[in-house]
Amino acid sequence: MLTIQRRALISARLNRDGQLVAKLLADELNLSEDTIRRDLREMAAEGLLKRVHGGAMPLTPPLPDFAARQEISGDMKQRLGHKAASLVSNGQTIFLDGGTTNTHLARALPREMRITVVTHSPTIASELEHHEAEVILIGGKLYKHSMVAVGASTLSAINQIRLDIFFLGVTAIHPVYGLSTGNYEEAAIKQAIVQQAAETYVLSTPEKFGAASPFRITGVESLAGVVVDGDMMPEPLAAYRELGVEILPA
Description:
Blueprint lengths: L2 H15 L2 E2 H8 L3 H13 L4 E3 L2 E3 L8 H4 L4 H12 L7 E4 L3 H9 L7 E4 L2 H6 L6 E4 L3 E3 L4 E3 L1 H7 L4 E6 L3 E3 L3 E4 L2 H13 E7 L11 E4 L6 E4 L9 H5 L3 E4 L1
Parallel strand pairs: 4-5, 4-9, 5-6, 9-12, 12-14, 14-15
Antiparallel strand pairs: 1-3, 2-3, 7-8, 10-11, 11-13
Helix pairs in contact: 1-3, 2-3, 5-6
């Protein structure tokens, strides 16, 4: 097999599976593992993929800062937020992850609703200033890119709370690799919150589907549902329905 053919196959597998194990591909193609690793090194040097231990993952483009992200797909995120807010009932304890889409969710919650909102995002907490909801703001080291708290003290506080719903923010969602994000500490916090919640939902804009970021949070099967743009084509969502995840168009 020619080098160009191997590289095309590697790119196709990364797009399909969200990851690639060098040894498995070498065995499948009856090639040496060194050959595949060399291809991965060269493709990584050209900015075509991300090398990880034992293989590779697709690149996800770096996100702009928080203020800039607030201006992206604002109308769509508002619709997603309103749909997600309809899932919340009086008396529940919910956790709102950081992120611009969940900011719209916070704004969409009825002001008179009697709920408890837990968050580690000062940005989210500030949106609830005039709501009847009780707001619990968890502290820690501020990860400024996402405007959320991370670290040991954040984890300790999360482990003391049981949640009805967690609205999880992610940078990528893939049927095989699962839900992922771009920061190791942030991923650990999200993993802990998933464990404390009876149900977890994701609000996702279309570009996040089929992508994978470096740090995995949990599998897609952990989700109760995904809130998506109502105009999104059904084909990219079929794999998630097959995994038993409810798709909630906004």
